[in-house]
Specification:
- The chain has about 220 residues and is an alpha/beta fold.
- The longest helix is centred in the last third of the chain and has 15 residues.
- The protein contains 8 helices and 8 strands, in the order βαβαβαβαββαβαβαα.
- It has one domain: Aldolase class I (TIM Barrel, Alpha-Beta Barrel), CATH 3.20.20.
- The protein is globular, with a radius of gyration of 16 Å.
- The protein is about 35% helix and about 20% strand.
- Strands 1-8-7-6-5-4-3-2 form an 8-stranded parallel beta sheet.
- α4 links the parallel β4 and β5.
- The structure holds D-xylitol-5-phosphate and zinc ion.
């Protein structure tokens, strides 16, 4: 059974509390939080003042995905927002090994996110240090985009690398996930699925989460 992380980005921001309560009541494992800065990605979502509110309401561990150019500047803020996982992008990390250690020292699980164009092989010397790798299956910045099919090959390649290195890192996939694409990546070796629009725009989000969970 996969780990399911509904993405709050697709929730109704006018009713955040009820969206979070819905996730609390559901079979979801984590709540996925997309922080954007308008520089690394062409969109701005929400920041730490909103997360202060989310952390009070969510009973699910927070999977915080930072789409920002300088994530290490905010390790303390991310920790204070009760993050279980801190995901930073490979593409902004000059000293990735050091960043991974700093995230762990701060008491969070360390995850690295790869954009669709970034090869999995670039992680071969840090894969043992990671708790999770998040593969983007859309270009980050927006919910509701179409799944990029090559992600399935990347999941399989990453799974092979993880096994070869004896790493315990999980594989998470984010973007355009529904029952069909979710099944494809799980069969290729994914452990965790992020789903935004597919959950929050569905008629019965609790049932949609349960359907993803049973893939
Ligand atoms: C995109 C975000 C995703 C997004 C997924 O930049 O990282 O987490 O919310 O949304 P869907 O599932 O609608 O593609
Ligand atoms: Zn995300």
């Amino acid at each position: 059974m996969a780990i399911i992380a509904p993405s709050l980005l697709s929730a109704d921001f006018g009713n955040l509390a009820s969206s979070i309560e819905m996730v609390n009541k559901s079979d979801a494992d984590w709540l996925h939080i997309d922080v954007m800065d308008g520089v690394f990605v062409p969109n701005i979502s929400f920041g730490f003042p909103v997360l202060d509110y989310v952390k009070k309401l969510s009973t699910k561990p927070l999977d915080v995905h930072l789409m920002i150019v300088d994530p290490m500047k905010f390790v303390k803020e991310v920790k204070n927002s009760n993050a279980y996982l801190m995901n930073i992008h490979y593409e902004v990390s000059t000293h990735l090994h050091r960043s991974i250690q700093q995230i762990k020292e701060a008491g969070m699980k360390a995850a690295v996110t790869l954009n669709p164009h970034t090869p999995v092989s670039l992680l071969q010397d840090v894969v043992e240090d990671l708790d999770m790798i998040l593969l983007m299956s859309v270009n980050p910045g927006f919910g509701g985009q179409k799944f990029i099919p090559n992600t399935v090959n990347k999941v399989a390649e990453l799974k092979e690398l993880i096994l070869k290195k004896g790493s315990s890192a999980l594989i998470e996939v984010d973007g355009g996930i529904n029952l069909e694409t979710g099944k494809l990546v799980i069969d290729a070796g994914a452990d965790a699925l992020v789903a935004g629009n597919f959950v929050f725009k569905s008629e019965n989000p609790i049932e949609t989460i349960a359907a993803l969970k049973s893939l």
